[in-house]
Each structure stands twice: as structure tokens, then as C-alpha cells.
Amino acid sequence: MSSAYDAPRSWTQIRDAINTNKLAAEVKDTGLRVFTKLAQAEATIHGVAVDKVHFHEVGATDSIVDIMAAAIGIRELGIEALQFSRIPLGHGVTRSMHGPLPVPGPATLELLKGLPVIGVDVEGETVTPTGAAIIRTLGEKFGAQPSMTIEKIGYGTGQKEFPNRPNLFRLVIGESGSSLKHEEMLVMETNIDDMNPQYFDHVMDRLFAAGARDVFLAPVQMKKNRPATLLTVICEPARRDQLAAIILQETTSIGVRYYSVNRLILKREAKKIPTRFGAIRVKIVEQPDGTQRAAPEYDDLKRIATAKNLPLKIIHDEVMRNLKK
User: Fold this and answer.
1) What are the helix and strand counts (H, E) for the chain?
2) What is the pLDDT of residue 186?
């Protein structure tokens, strides 16, 4: 077990360690997203650039393991969306490498901005910066228990005892009763009329890599009849600041507008289908009447078709035949 005061680690050290390990790409991506949010919060608190951030308590081995274990658990349990109750915050003073700090700590509060919290009668820290970063990055909805059929329940307990409430975290896993899933999303957009259009490819790649659900371009006509491009991004609300920063860094835009939207999506799952050309990922979607339809992942079809020097349609047809077996 590591000490709470392990030697500080820089954000770049942690990022390199995650990138070079042998974990699945999906796990590494989740872990990096959580640590990126944490680094951004620390940079804001200390007034430094993100790449200059050094983690103290949160950079300890235990915290790295906590975040990567959460990323592994989400993948292994097949969790599609995380929803949290209102976040309980204690009070008082805690010790740190920087000396005494109020509870909740500055980094914790920075990470929880815009999320629903509730004060509880507990002397001490109920949410750490690590936990807040996981909630901030991965939480999609907050509040009442969602409608679902409960399948599994897990508990994690802390060592400290509180007089008025249990010191535990409970995870409830279930399936929605409907093939339609409700999500609250954010639409971000900006009009651009003075940028080299070749740059949009790079902008879109960065936005998708940072977690945008969709990015698209549309021609528009602006004032003084200037032709322009409308850049639109659809994302979870928690990703607003990170994606807005990319837009403002990578384009000539001087502002981004955003608004909340709701959407209904069909239940889906991903499977790997073995074929004579190799395993290919397939997305299986359940329609409102209970029937299913499947679509092979285009990137897998393209990769194998290129490697085997075969028409892509042959690979596609092979997958669909195997699905019917």
C-alpha cells in the first residue's frame, strides 16, 4: 500500500505510463480522460499550464490504481452509461501536502462545478479529487434512481467510520425496461468563415478523440453574404469545457454557443464475430418491436480488406453469413 504522500508525479509521467502499458485501448482511453479532467482542475487551481501540473496525493500509486481499476471495471462489466445520485459533501478540514485545506478540497469543488451536490452532516472528506474526476468524466445523469431491472449489486467500504451514515459506495447494475434509452446531451456550434477548410479534418479528429459523440459540418450563409461553415458537436454535458477549448484552440472561432437537448437511442451491444478472415466487431441494435439488426464496424472491414487485398463487400457478406449461423 502506498503512502498518501508518495513522491509527486507529473501529468506527463502519468500520461506516458498509461499510454505505454498493455491494457486494452478502451481502458487506456477512459483512464486518460479521467486524469485529463483531473489535470485540468489542478491547473486551474494552481494557475499553471496543464502540462506543468504535478500530482501529490492524487498522483500516488493508489489513486492511479483506483482510476484504472474503474476503467477496467466499466469495460469488463459491459456498462454502457453511468448515472449517479446527488453527490454528498462533508465539511471540516483535511491535511494535505499543501497544509490544512477546507473540505471539500479545492480540486474536488472545481471538478464538481455544474453537478448536483448535497451537504451532509459528516465531519471529513466524503468525495476525493480522484472520485470527483471519475464522476465528472463518466457520469451522464444525476439524481433519482433510473427505471431499470436490477441485475447485480456491489459495495465498496471505506476504513473511516461516520456516526450518522455508512461509509460505502454502492453500484447497482441493471437493464432498462425499454429498447429506447433517454440521454441528455449538449449541442455545441460555431460559424467559421475565415479558416483554411483543410484544417477541419484535424479539428474533427481532435474532437472525436476527446469524446465527442458526433461532429459534422454544414455550409451556411452569414452576414454580408459571406459563405461559411457551421461546425456542430454533440457531446455529454460534462465534456463541454474540454471540447470548447479544442474548438477555440484549433479554429479561428472566437466563441462557441451551446444548448441542452434530449435524445432517444436504441439499445445496442458490440460483439466480435469470428470469420475466416479474422474477428470483426459488429454492432447489434434492438429495435422498438424487439427485433434486431446488425452492422459490421466499417474500420474492421476496411482494415481486413486492405490487408487481404479483397473487395470490402466480400468481407461484409462473410460477417453477415456468420451472424445467421
Assistant:
1) 9, 16
2) 92
β-bridge partners, 304? none
Cell of 257: 454557443
- Cα–Cα distance, 244 to 251 (Å, whole number): 11
Sequence letter at residue 15? R
Question: How much is the average pLDDT of 120-145?
Answer: 88
- Is residue 239 classed exposed, middle or buried when 0-12, 13-18 and 19+ CB atoms within 10 A define those classes? buried
- 73 burial (CB, 10 Å; 0-12 / 13-18 / 19+) is middle
Mean pLDDT of the chain: 86
pLDDT in the model for residue 56: 62
Rg, Å, the chain Cα set: 23
Beta pairing class for 54-55 and 87-94: unpaired
Q: How far apart are CA 269 and CA 239, in angstroms?
A: 23
Residue (of 245, 223, 231) closest to 195 by Cα position: 231
Within 8 A by CB and 6+ apart from 254, the residues are 248
- The DSSP secondary structure of 171-228, one letter per residue, reads EEEEE-SSSEEEEEEEEEEEEE-SS-GGGHHHHHHHHHHTT-SEEEEEEEE-GGG-EE
Buried b (16+ CB within 10 A) or exposed e, 195-234: beeeebeebbebbeebbbbebeeeeeeeeeeeebbebebb
DSSP at 164? S
Q: Is the pLDDT of residue 54 over 80?
A: no
